[in-house]
Amino acid sequence: MEPFAASVREALKWWRFVPAVDRSRCEPNRSTAAFAVWFEGTSDSPKVYFSFPKSADSVFRPSVLSIDAPTVRYPQKLIGIEGQVRVLRLIDPSGNVKSAAVRSSTPYGAFDSAVLKAARNTKVRWGDPAPSQDLCVEQTYQFCMSRRIDATAEFEACK
Q1: 87: exposed, middle or buried (C-beta count within 10 Å: 0-12, 13-18, 19+)?
Q2: 3-state secondary structure of 63
Q3: DSSP 8-class letter at 96
Q4: Is the pLDDT of residue 8 over 70?
Q5: Nearest 10 degrees: Cα torsion 22, 27, 33, 37
Q6: Which of the four pLDDT bands, split at 50, 70 and 90, describes residue 4?
Q7: How much is the CA Rg of the chain, to the nearest whole Å?
Q8: What is the pLDDT of residue 78?
Q9: Distance from the Cα of residue 80 to its chain's centroid
Q10: Mean pLDDT of 62-74
Q11: Which stretches of the chain are DSSP H helices?
Q12: How many other β-carbons are positioned within 10 Å of the β-carbon of residue 137?
């Protein structure tokens, strides 16, 4: 049984909870989700599998001409730590951010304040068709380092 337990511990290192989103308020939402865990293999070669909860229905995705977002400064006290923040922005049809909230982050809370500060001061220019009502938009910030002097905050992926 121990080889399977060790496989579960290893898999859990990579598991992250990401809450559902209340699109009308553009905030993380309490909801119920189920996923399955199953085991295969032998004690010499244990395998652990996880299912993923059903994803949300597709949403309207307008064309974006530009996003004017302030640079997110890599917090000096976190040099040497890499992480990720998924932020939600409620953006009105004129492109102004009405609110911002963290959907998930790793390490938990480490980079949240730096991202929220920038997220609240973002301006979006829509292409056609522009939204006719407030729109909830999610963006991922990655905090990456290849060397200590190389601390950067990137959208979507690390180089």
Answers
A1: buried
A2: coil
A3: B
A4: yes
A5: 150
A6: confident
A7: 19
A8: 84
A9: 20
A10: 85
A11: 2-12, 112-120
A12: 21
Three-class DSSP category at 115: helix
Both tokens assigned to 67: 């996003």
**Preceding peptide of 93 cis, ω within 30°:** no
**What's the pTM?**
0.70
Write the burial class of residue 86 (CB in 10 Å: 0-12 exposed, 13-18 middle, 19+ buried).
Answer: buried
Buried-exposed string 5-25: b where 16+ CB fall within 10 A, e elsewhere: eebeeeeeeeeeeeeebebee
Q: Quote the tokens at residue 11.
A: 């898999």
Q: What is the pLDDT of residues 13-32, one digit of tens each?
A: 666 677 888 888 889 887 77
> Which residues have CB under 8 Å from 153's CB, separation 6+?
71, 72, 73, 74, 111, 114, 115, 141, 142, 143, 144
